[in-house]
Amino acid sequence: PAMPQLALAIFCAVTISSLVPGIVGAIYCAWTRRKQRKRTPTYDLNIPIDYNALGIGGLDKELTEIRRRALASRTLSPQEVEEMEIEHVRGILLYGPPGTGKTLIARKIGGLLKAASTKIVNGPEILDKYVGVSEQRIRELFAAAECDQDRQGANSGLHVIIFDEIDAICKKRGEMDNHVNDTIVDQLLAKMDGIEQLNNILVIGITNLPELLDSALLRPGRFEIQMKVINLPDEAGRLQIFEIRTAKLKENNKLDGSVNLKELAKKTKQYSGAGIAGLITMADFKRALGEKPKKKEEKDQNEQNVDESSSLKKSEEKEEKANMTLSKKKTYNPIKRVRHYVAKKTCDALRGD
Ligand SMILES: Nc1ncnc2c1ncn2[C@@H]1O[C@H](COP(=O)(O)OP(=O)(O)OP(=O)(O)O)[C@@H](O)[C@H]1O
Asked: Per its UniProt record, what SMART domains does this chain match (predicted)?
């Protein structure tokens, strides 16, 4: 009589032991899924941006605006996005004159959003003489994000794709002799429309010439946020950029205590961020080459001549006269002269002269 009981006990033990892994697995899956759904948002809008730490000076207004209009929805968790049927902004176009910090902003957006990946590609790099290669390159740019979305769904990390000089590949269709441009635009549009099913891509286009772009790119759902980054930094912005660009020098005790960044910010009116960056680089080179500053009298003379517009005019006349006597071929460029002077001042200042 003990045999059937033993057999029953063995049967129960085998059945339970075979069910246990399945049950444990199911519980674990449900738990991890729940944990993923509760995942904290990738980006917290309430934390103020530390612009100096970001390395962007004088563009507080633009960055705040981008944050408010384009990045706010990314602060939500995947669950909230799903429940509220939110559609993230998928495209931002940054346009404006060269050297104003557009590329810098685009790169930092990826960092701000803690993006899983940030790819930056120059428009002309996409172009290829062989048929279909340019379109293939565009598809490849989107491939990783699509794959991530397939595998992780709403929990996929954000992929930021930056097209610098986008005007090189997205000119108005039908206006060019070769059709390569048109098929590239078609491909990019198809990919951007495909993002509708994907919530994990943010495309940023950068251009100096927005008027050349195909208008289909600018409609809602594509590059729907268009931000003009045009203003040359004001004095406070320039000071911020000087501070950012000399922070490393300061940290490594390479910046003399006598350097007056406020004074430099005052003297660099009309300078873009790139202009200021260029000045510091030039000063660094000169210091590295051990170039000695000019004699004091010569320096004083320079200081008298430049800066105020009235003295600029005077120096312009003076220089013109000198040019006429020296050589008729030589052309005088007052802007260049002011730049030269400011560059020299920066150099002197950085050297602690
Ligand atoms: N606002 C800024 N703050 C700090 N650095 C800046 C700023 N603007 C420009 N720079 C410096 O100038 C360099 C060039 O800037 P950036 O490439 O962002 O300009 P851009 O507007 O994209 O120019 P382009 O249209 O010619 O590509 C940057 O690498 C950076 O070092």
From this structure: AAA (SM00382)
Measure the CA–CA gap between 153 and 175, rounded to whole angstroms.
40
Whole-number Cα distances in Å, 328 to 79, 238, 315, 319, 324? 73, 38, 18, 12, 5
Residue nearest to atom 17 of ligand 1 (CA): 103
| 150 vs 137: CA distance, rounded Å | 20
Q: Does the Cβ of 205 fall within 6 Å of ligand 1?
A: no
Render pLDDT for 42-64 as a digit per residue (tens, 0 to 9): 445 555 666 667 888 888 888 88
- For atom 4 of ligand 1, the residue with the nearest CA is 56
pLDDT digits (tens, 9 = 90+) for 259-293: 889 988 998 888 888 989 888 888 776 666 666 55
Name, in order, each residue with C-beta under 8 angstroms of 297's C-beta and a sequence gap of 6 or more. none
Q: Which atom of ligand 1 is nearest to 58's Cα?
A: 1
ipTM of the prediction: 0.94
Among 59, 100, 163, say which to mutate for ligand 1: greatest number of ligand atoms within 8 Å of CB: 100
Pocket test for ligand 1, best of 103, 109, 204, 276 (most atoms within 8 A of CB): 103
CA distances from 348 to 91, 259, 291 (A): 44, 9, 10
Helix (H, G, I), strand (E, B) or coil at 95: strand
Q: How many CB atoms lie within 10 A of CB 217?
A: 21
What residue owns the CA closest to ligand 1's atom 30?
Answer: 274
Q: Which domains does the chain have, with CATH numbers?
A: 51-228 (3.40.50.300), 235-350 (no CATH)
Q: Could you give the CA distance from residue 192 to residue 205 in angstroms, rounded to a whole number?
A: 12
Q: Which atom of ligand 1 is nearest to the CA of 275?
A: 12
